[in-house]
Design goal:
The chain is an alpha/beta fold. 41% of the residues lie in helices and 16% in strands. The strands form two sheets. The chain has a seven-stranded parallel β-sheet, with helices on both faces. Helix 1 links the parallel strand 1 and strand 2. The chain is elongated.
Length: 364
């Protein structure tokens, strides 16, 4: 069996979210490649920092600058019909795929929060995702919440969709990073994620401003790359006069991120919508207690290892931060539950289950 894979999400310099997912799957595929199960990974550009090729794990660069998955990749697949099944780790299948195909859907945030996306990206996500869902023999959803959203929004039969949770591991040796964070001399609340409206950072800032009136020593650290409409977040901080209390760390390395988690008072994930929520597990793995919004997949992933709040009610978040601050025992309990919770998730488990879905699709 030869499995074709779209490897472009993994072939980027700064890997976050879906790129991390795609890379971990490729690493597992490389380990499992043998005479019976071979892999051909298709790329737009030559591989950079990807698993090395072997006799049964190969890369193929298909040239094409635009509409790659809609024109150039399909032409290649039809020209040389030398794969048995095709897998896309992120939403888009090749147009007119000549073999059975499997696609992973991470979330449908573009349907619920269209204002978070550029019009060009929104058009692609809506139309190409719909096409991929209809054409796929099997669909992988990264949570039960995402599966429910797919069934509701696209009327797909439930039996067509398999839930395979994302993995989580941070196999890095901790070293104190050579960087100065202005807020580490104070207790600080931490947010990690892209700066965009559906992440509800404005709600977090509102809650922080109210909590700080009660505990002036606290700071807020926001780590993550700039997304869509991020200017409003900076404007809000300025309008509230919080420039000295809110620190924007921008994109951080794994080691810097570990440092931020390990030294934070708590991690808050205030999102209005998440398909999975890897930062929850990230925080737990570094002994950082978690407060998360009670929305979409977050309670499914965090289970009893988080405190939850209404993301549309900043006062509810204030109460949860106060509860954690006033109760050291609760903080210790959340840390212990978090360490137990993360054992439920691994990239090895995720990749093994994903490969099984792909193989079964090829056989049927």
């Amino acid at each position: 069996m030869i499995i074709g894979v779209d490897g472009n999400e993994a072939n980027v310099e700064r890997r976050v979210g879906v790129s991390v997912y795609a890379l971990n799957l490729l690493k597992y595929f490389k380990k499992k490649a043998d005479r019976e199960t071979q892999f051909k990974v298709f790329l737009r550009n030559p591989p950079k920092d990807l698993p090395e090729e072997s006799n049964y794990y190969k890369y193929e660069v298909v040239k094409g600058k635009f509409l790659w998955s809609q024109i150039f990749l399909p032409l290649r697949l039809y020209k040389k019909k030398n794969i048995d099944v095709f897998f896309s780790p992120a939403h888009y299948l090749p147009r007119f795929c000549p073999v059975p195909a499997v696609v992973t859907i991470h979330d449908l945030s573009f349907l619920y929060f269209p204002e978070d996306f550029l019009q060009k990206d929104l058009y692609q996500l809506k139309n190409w995702t719909e096409y991929s869902l209809k054409q796929a023999k099997k669909v992988i959803a990264v949570s039960k919440t995402t599966k429910k959203d797919i069934v509701k929004s696209y009327q797909l039969p439930e039996e067509k969709i398999e839930v395979v949770y994302n993995g989580y591991e941070k196999n890095i040796k901790y070293q104190i990073p050579n960087i100065k964070y202005e807020h580490i001399d104070h207790p600080y609340i931490l947010y990690v994620g892209t700066l965009q409206p559906r992440k509800n950072i404005s709600g977090l800032i509102d809650a922080f401003e109210k909590f700080k009136k009660l505990h002036s020593e606290f700071k807020l650290t926001i780590a993550g790359k700039k997304g869509w409409l991020y200017d409003k977040i900076f404007d809000q901080v300025a309008e509230m006069g919080l420039e000295d209390d809110v620190y924007f760390a921008d994109f951080v390395t794994d080691n810097q991120l570990m440092f931020l988690y390990k030294n934070a008072f708590c991690f808050v994930m205030p999102s209005l919508y998440e398909g999975f929520g890897i930062p929850l597990l990230e925080a737990m793995s570094f002994d950082c207690p978690v407060i998360a919004s009670f929305s979409s997949s977050l309670p499914e992933i965090g289970a009893d290892a988080c405190l939850y709040f209404d993301p549309k009610n900043p006062l509810d978040l204030v109460e949860k931060i106060k509860l954690l601050n006033d109760n050291p025992k609760l903080k210790s309990e959340l840390i212990a539950k978090g360490k137990k919770r993360i054992k439920e998730f691994s990239w090895n488990k995720c990749a093994e289950q994903t490969l099984e879905v792909i193989k079964q699709t090829a056989i049927k």
